[in-house]
């Protein structure tokens, strides 16, 4: 069966967009083929800085023929209806129609055979549509055609389209189409500098080979492998070790069609700069890898660059050029670092009075003050020294005003730690300068030093309460202040450090510290608590745990101790996996269902204690007794925060509940007995509330 | 490179030869070679030959040197390559020709950068000027890891779609010349290509100015006056725009350029205030927005002028 080769040759495609674009191209073309009845055998897409390419092999040469029947008018129907039918079906006369008998009468049936079209014609139709509707994250217009509406949008100017279709054994055909004046053909071009001439290609195999001969490695993975292997070899040969960096490797492989790896160096003196800053400088600005000394594990004064050309001089000028660029960059970084060290962190703070954190929430200086107060309040709750927590909160943001952080925002916090250590701060205080931003996401490390924990909580809670107070809550996909991340951070800080604190209380303190006074200040902490519940659910869902149990626990009310909530949810989850748990849940749900039906019927509730005198059956008595015992036992266990024990207690409720439903008819003929039994059912419901609201648990 | 040039005029020998080589190259591509605009501005893009001429349907090919003032980038002449005043070489071609990338590479060859021994790359860099209400897609052009030019296909300017799209090239002249001359400190650039006593360096020409303006920009510039100037320029821009509509109808405009001068002025005054550190983060946004509103209104006026392509 024939194969398709498609190449879209353009000016340089941003590295970060290439992988997805290749994938989109493959998906869009193959989806369309399948939708057109052309089931292919395989497809693979590639990207380089200047081209997207796709090969689809084993495409049938034609679509299958389609046979459809179409029912027409009744025999003897008015002529207008007959004519309409003939026109719609393409029949010449009714003689060509079949007649179908039906209880309602005899109908004309047209048999329409739609012969499948040649695949190449289908391709000529679908490819231009795909090109015109291609989902680039950002696309543009160019050239003279952009003066008129409807001109093509592409990521950068598109110059040539190669599209061939045919069997391996034959000369393939060019898929006949054009987009915005670009005619599909079979001509592409090699490396921009080393082999810029036109290349005529037939099909994927010779295409890939001819590109390689023209100094273009089509497959991004192959380029990555080359860069990685060469970089490792080059560093190893000199007794060094490459600092691996997958993200950088991905990017670099998208910047070259013909990777040539070389090593350069910089002056030893720059190694006095913190390693993270050296790495940020070299990586962000120059897209180069840094190199470690394998013996000491420390950075060396080497870097690895990836050029896109085999230079005539062997790369001497390129290496020297890169060194010349890196030198002033490191010189800047060193200068920034040394300048920063001359000013104490606390001496930077007055400047925060000029910097607005948020229009409605005041200056950064005001925010820092609030975090200090809150950190001091939280410190004893998390086992941190109040003095150290206050000091850390005081200094934690100061590095934002340093030169290094101004230049490399990604080292914020980290620089704070370095500067704090340099000015002789306590180790915990210094650590908190870095760690109070953590955790930044679900995969980030959670700090454990109590001082860091106190400041991290204070920072996040001030943010959350502040934005709640000015009603800037996240909505849908919009969360410009990363409040969801902050809430998840609080949850993880508390849960992973096993901390006990009342969120409502801390939120109230944070609120008291704000200068804005929201209208519904009373409601705010509980609103915020509901947000935490949502976040907790999301987190549990992502861990594959049952998030509906969070609702079952929160529904009990008065729950603002996250650790206890998490523990209770865990215990409940385990319990519900057991047979006892499953059956008790079923029994409780059954009781609830019966109750809600009967409550509706009688338009009343069945609260209040049942009357022991009205029990007539052994199962009733047994259940009543069990409820009393289990409730007491479970409540006692909950009071001791032993949720596992509470759940075991609950388990004891299962046999009497099962037996009750087995043997006892709730809707007894005697209304008094019926009422009493319904009250007993209500007791089951309230007994289980010692651990959770079972009605909120999904089956 | 032109072999007939005397040594002191060669692009790798003198800063002025470097500029002349670029001018000559782009003149040969059909560009009008303009002189710098006579106002202080942050980038060559602000020149009306780019900002305003990028709008409207009329073809336009131009190249020019534009002194760029970046008050915040001053380093008292002590940094090897950061300055509050430097030169940009700007090329604008509308509509963007299909071989603009090739022309650009040829221009590098014209100033002595041989693509057989240098690693030249187009690295994604989307350009946006919040103050001009303008954006485009393109690249930073790298030579051996150094950003030497900015290459942009303008999509929108002053809030208006560019139809057709213009291609814009901006060369950082000092940085490129340093590379070509092989010097590490901008002030060591040979300006006139002469040797010995006859040699004039970039430092001879500009070092004094860098020291003085750095002091001015960071320490002394009269902020009260500048705040006032900002307001005055803003008001004047509005006033000229209002007065420019022919017969008071919004059909033809007669004064887009004088109004736009005031927009340029407001933008530079804002940059000075910013360098003095008297504009807070939130205020900053609102100043940028105010300049953008002026730029947009000027763009609208321009497309209603004869040169702007109004019928």
From TrEMBL, chain B:
- GO process terms (BP): glycyl-tRNA aminoacylation
One Pfam family hit: tRNA-synt_2e
- UniProt keyword annotation of Cytoplasm present: yes
Q: Which GO terms describe its cellular component?
A: cytosol
Q: Does the keyword Nucleotide-binding apply?
A: yes
Q: What is its main location?
A: cytoplasm
Keywords attached to this Swiss-Prot or TrEMBL record, sorted alphabetically, are: Aminoacyl-tRNA synthetase, ATP-binding, Cytoplasm, Ligase, Nucleotide-binding, Protein biosynthesis
Protein localization: Cytoplasm
SUPFAM superfamilies, alphabetized = Class II aaRS and biotin synthetases
A GO molecular-function descriptor:
glycine-tRNA ligase activity
Q: Which reaction does it catalyse?
A: tRNA(Gly) + glycine + ATP = glycyl-tRNA(Gly) + AMP + diphosphate
Q: What is its EC number?
A: 6.1.1.14
Write down the HAMAP family for this protein, in alphabetical order. Gly_tRNA_synth_alpha (MF_00254)
On assembly, the entry states:
Tetramer of two alpha and two beta subunits.
Q: Which family does it belong to?
A: Belongs to the class-II aminoacyl-tRNA synthetase family.
The identity of this protein, by name, is Glycine--tRNA ligase alpha subunit
């Amino acid at each position: 069966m024939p194969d398709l080769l498609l190449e879209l040759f353009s000016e340089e495609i941003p590295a970060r967009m290439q992988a997805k674009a290749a994938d989109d191209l493959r998906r869009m073309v193959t989806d369309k083929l399948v939708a057109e009845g052309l089931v292919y055998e395989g497809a693979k897409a590639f990207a380089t800085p200047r081209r997207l390419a796709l090969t689809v092999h084993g495409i049938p040469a034609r679509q299958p023929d389609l046979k459809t029947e179409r029912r027409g008018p009744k025999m003897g129907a008015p002529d207008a209806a007959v004519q309409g039918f003939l026109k719609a079906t393409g029949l010449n006369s009714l003689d060509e129609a079949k007649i179908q008998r039906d209880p309602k009468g005899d109908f004309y049936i047209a048999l329409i055979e739609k012969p499948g079209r040649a695949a190449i014609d289908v391709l000529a139709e679908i490819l231009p549509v795909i090109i015109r509707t291609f989902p680039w994250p950002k696309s543009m217009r160019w050239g003279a055609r952009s003066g008129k509406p409807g001109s093509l949008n592409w990521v950068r100017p598109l110059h040539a389209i190669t599209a061939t279709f045919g069997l391996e054994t034959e000369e393939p055909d060019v898929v006949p189409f054009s987009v915005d004046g670009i005619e599909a053909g079979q001509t592409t071009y090699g490396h921009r500098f080393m082999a810029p001439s036109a290349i005529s290609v037939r099909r994927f195999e010779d295409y890939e080979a001819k590109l390689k001969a023209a100094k273009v490695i089509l497959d991004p993975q192959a380029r990555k492998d080359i860069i990685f292997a060469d970089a490792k070899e080059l560093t190893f040969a000199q007794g060094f070790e490459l600092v691996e960096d997958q993200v950088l490797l991905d990017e670099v492989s998208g910047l070259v069609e013909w990777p040539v790896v070389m090593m350069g160096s910089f002056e030893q003196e720059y190694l006095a700069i913190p390693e993270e800053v050296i790495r940020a400088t070299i990586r962000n600005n120059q897209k180069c890898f840094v190199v470690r000394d394998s013996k000491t594990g420390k950075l060396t004064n080497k870097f690895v660059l990836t050029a896109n050309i085999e230079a005539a001089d062997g790369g001497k000028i390129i290496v020297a050029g890169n060194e010349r660029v890196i030198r002033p960059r490191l010189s800047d970084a060193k200068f920034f670092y040394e300048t920063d060290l001359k000013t104490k962190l606390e001496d930077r703070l007055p400047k925060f009075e000029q910097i607005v954190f948020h229009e409605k929430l005041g200056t950064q200086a005001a925010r820092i003050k609030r975090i200090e107060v809150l950190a001091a309040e939280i410190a004893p709750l998390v086992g941190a020294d109040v003095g150290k927590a206050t000091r850390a909160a005081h200094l934690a943001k100061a590095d934002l005003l340093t030169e290094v952080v101004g230049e490399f925002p990604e080292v914020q916090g980290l620089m704070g730690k370095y500067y704090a250590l340099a000015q002789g701060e306590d180790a915990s205080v210094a650590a908190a300068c870095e760690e109070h931003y953590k955790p930044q996401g679900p995969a980030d490390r959670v700090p454990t030093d109590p001082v860091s924990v106190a400041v991290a909580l204070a920072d996040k809670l001030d943010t959350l309460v502040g934005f709640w107070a000015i009603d800037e809550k996240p909505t849908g996909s919009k969360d410009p202040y990363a409040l969801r991340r902050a809430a998840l951070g609080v949850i993880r800080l508390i849960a992973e450090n096993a901390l006990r604190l009342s969120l409502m209380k801390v939120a109230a303190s944070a609120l008291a510290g704000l200068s804005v006074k929201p209208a519904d200040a009373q409601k705010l902490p509980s609103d915020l608590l509901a947000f935490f519940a949502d976040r907790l659910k999301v987190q549990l869902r992502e861990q594959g745990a049952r998030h509906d149990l969070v609702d079952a626990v929160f529904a009990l009310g008065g729950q603002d101790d996250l650790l206890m909530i998490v523990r209770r949810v865990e215990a409940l989850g385990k319990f519900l996996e057991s047979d006892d748990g499953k059956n008790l849940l079923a029994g409780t749900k059954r009781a609830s269902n019966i109750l809600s039906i009967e409550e509706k019927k009688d338009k009343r509730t069945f609260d209040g204690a049942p009357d022991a005198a009205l029990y007539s059956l052994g199962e009733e008595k047994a259940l009543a007794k069990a409820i009393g015992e289990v409730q007491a036992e479970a409540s006692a266990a909950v009071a001791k925060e032993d949720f596992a024990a509470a759940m075991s207690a609950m388990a004891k409720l299962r046999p009497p509940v099962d037996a009750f439903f087995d043997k006892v008819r709730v809707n007894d003929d005697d209304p008094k007995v019926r009422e009493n039994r319904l009250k007993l059912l209500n007791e089951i419901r309230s007994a289980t509330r010692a651990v959770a609201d079972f009605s909120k648990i999904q089956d | 490179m032109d072999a007939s040039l005397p040594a002191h005029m060669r692009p790798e020998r003198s800063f002025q030869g470097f500029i002349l080589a670029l001018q000559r190259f782009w003149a040969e591509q059909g560009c009008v070679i303009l002189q710098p605009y006579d106002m202080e501005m942050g980038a060559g893009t602000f020149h009306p030959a780019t900002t305003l001429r990028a709008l409207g349907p009329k073809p336009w090919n131009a190249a020019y040197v534009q002194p760029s003032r970046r008050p915040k980038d001053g380093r008292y002449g002590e940094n090897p390559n950061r300055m509050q005043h430097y030169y940009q070489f700007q090329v604008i071609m509308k509509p963007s020709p299909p071989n603009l990338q090739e022309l650009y590479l040829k221009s590098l060859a014209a100033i002595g950068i041989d693509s057989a021994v240098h690693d030249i790359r187009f690295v994604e860099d989307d350009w946006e000027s919040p103050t001009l209400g303008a954006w485009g897609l393109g690249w930073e052009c790298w030579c051996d890891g150094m950003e030497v030019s900015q290459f942009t296909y303008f999509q929108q300017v002053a809030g208006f779609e560019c139809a057709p799209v213009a291609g814009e090239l901006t060369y950082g002249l000092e940085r490129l010349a340093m590379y070509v001359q092989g010097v590490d400190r901008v002030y060591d650039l040979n300006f006139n290509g002469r040797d010995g006593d006859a040699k004039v360096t970039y430092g001879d020409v500009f070092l004094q100015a860098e020291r003085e303006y750095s002091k001015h920009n960071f320490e002394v510039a009269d902020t009260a006056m500048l705040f006032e100037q900002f307001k005055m320029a803003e008001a004047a821009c509005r006033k000229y725009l209002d007065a420019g509509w022919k017969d008071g109808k919004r059909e033809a405009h007669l004064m887009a350029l004088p109004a736009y001068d005031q927009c340029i002025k407001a933008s530079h005054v804002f940059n000075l205030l910013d360098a003095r550190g008297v504009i807070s983060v939130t205020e900053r946004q609102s100043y940028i927005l105010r300049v953008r509103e002026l730029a947009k209104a000027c763009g609208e006026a321009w497309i209603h002028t004869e040169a702007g392509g109004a019928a």
